[in-house]
Amino acid sequence: MQKLWKYQFQWDEVVPPDIAIEWKTLSQDILFVKDFKILRYLFLDPDNQFQLHGFSDASEKAYAAVIYCRSVSNTVQIKVQLVIAKTKVAPLKTISLPRLELCGALLLSKLMDFTCKAFDIPISQSHFHTDSTIWHYVSGNENPADLATRSVSSSAILTSLWLCVPEFLYKECSFHPESSVPTLNDSVSTLNEPVPGERCCVQSTIAANHLPNSNDLFQKYSSLSKLKRVTAYCLRFVNNCRNSKDKETGFLNTTELTNAINVLIKSVQFIEFNNEINALKRNQALSCRSKILSLNPFLDNSGILRVGGRLRHANIAYGHKHPILLPKRPILTDLIVRHYHEILLHAGPQLVQSSIQEQYWIIGARHVIRHLIRKCVKCRRVRASISNQMMSDLPTTRISPSPTFLRCGVDYAGPFQIKASKGRNSKSFKAYIALFVCFTTRAIHLELICGSEEHRVRFLSRIKEDLRNQIVRRRFHNE
Ligand SMILES: [Zn+2]
After folding, report:
1. Which site from 67, 105, 161, 354 is most exposed, i.e. has the minimal number of CB atoms within 10 Å?
2. Residue 375 alpha carbon to ligand 1 centre in Å
């Protein structure tokens, strides 16, 4: 199915031969599923000790997790049985194998949590096995989850490790002697009871090549406020880890949100204006090739690059005098423009630009703002042109030459309040206008019809009467 999605086939299209063969093999193989039997009884003798053993693995096609229950009786009789398994296909987006292995590990953790909660009996130990040394290491040959990450025929799975269970689980004492890493339960108990005089050191190493690109973070969120809040929570987590005594909890405050946006801006500026920032830090002059040389940039107290400009003595806010410099390419700039466009209720480019410039100076702002507003779905919907009906052919009377007002239309407009004479005290009264339009020349003739509603009715009845006359009917068209 994933392959069909990948190649974007329509439902009525013929699939290529290799996929057709694969499908045929699968449909023939699925007939053997009826021989596949899973025992529902889990030999739950309450006197036994129960352990859960989870295995996870990943391949480029899929990642999977499987859990077995190992029961040890008082007479040291060991039984192992499959409890639950879950497989997920790898995402269409290319992901590295180590990351997929982590996805598999996460799947196993969730599955183990679910299984522990579902069991009514006490579980003495939970063990996690994978081909990583973080948990119990298990080779691919001994890992049943490996089968779920690649295509295995139904007939083969009956005799495979999946149902026959890894042999080392039947061993009496340590089920996996090679592993020296403590189990999850052990580690928790050790952490709770610190040994006096002993110090535990944890060292973490991050390879520079694996540092996430800040663009990856920006691409995940389509709104500036969400990105800001996520960053603020991440920063809070880092601060809380560093200062375990004075932890920050509860809602995010303004300072945290401001710090978050500053961090995001600095990361963007560091990538785009690296040379300029380095030169300013060393108190050197900017390169004459620099695009921002004319803006006279400087670094403020928090290390953000701002426009120097010529407004130093202006009586306006600091952010307006020295706006933050932003390049036009990064996604952060787009998010800021979109944010301003939305809080200004989908305003036009000029208003958005002037509002943004109270805080930020985007290079090529006009073009960036216009481009983004053009792409705004809501604005596009509002701007959409209204569809017009096709007009019918003109009547013969309109396009045949004839004397003026030989054939005309009549319309009636009003009422209007008009005065009989000039001056303040003159009385005003209702009046109507009869409009005669010549069909041939489009010349118009206006006739004032004074009087009350009765007059109007009388005029209309007169016109109707005229229309009854055959001769006049040819000449008048009342709309
Ligand atoms: Zn809009």
Report:
1. 354
2. 8
